[in-house]
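so my prof wants the structure for this chain in the tokens format not the other one, which i didnt know existed until like an hour ago. anyway here's the sequence
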Amino acid sequence: MMRSHLDRREQIIRIEGIDEFLIDHHRLIFSAILDHDARSRATPGGEPGHGPSLQPVNRPERKKQFMKIVIGSDHAGFALKGQVIEHLKAAGHEVEDVGSFGPNLVDFPDIARLVCDKVRGRDAERGLLVCGTGVGAAIAANKIRGIRAAVCHDVHSAHQSVEHDDVNVMCIGAQIVGPWLAADLVDAFFSAEFDRNEDFVRRVEKLAQLETAD
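here's what i got, hopefully its the right format
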């Protein structure tokens, strides 16, 4: 019994030592990444002895605007959709909910069709689809001509998908993001505007050509 107790204590000590080693190891790796990132962004000709000079990141200023939005979900996204609708309405947007209207089983392609038809018919400026992961909804939406849908689970993708790719339907997964992040995602998506840079315009036009290629 005494040896068993000592063995257990030795195991705990060894485990704690491993944990401390891993924490220190990860801290060193993270510090190295930050240092490499800072050096890679350094302005050539920075003053020696004063560390790297970082270039500012220029992003388009996003104006606050109110939109007519259509939103839909399957059963997996139903609960999160309700929270997102409350957030969008509080921000001043006009929101149309096309279902689902309960937690019962719903096929996401049916909801995707309802949302995308509203966007195509200009009854809504942009659409939002909420399912389990966002993937199925995006696949369904991109089958519909005139729709450019994207799964966005980070704020950068949420606004850049509009600015560079003129995305008109954003898809999010209720099993991936919670209500706080979802609020940030929809704020970024619905406040972004397409940058009519000639490169972006040309690429979006080529996306439309792909729809009629076959």
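also thought this was worth mentioning. Residues 4-23, 36-60 have pLDDT under 50 and may be disordered.
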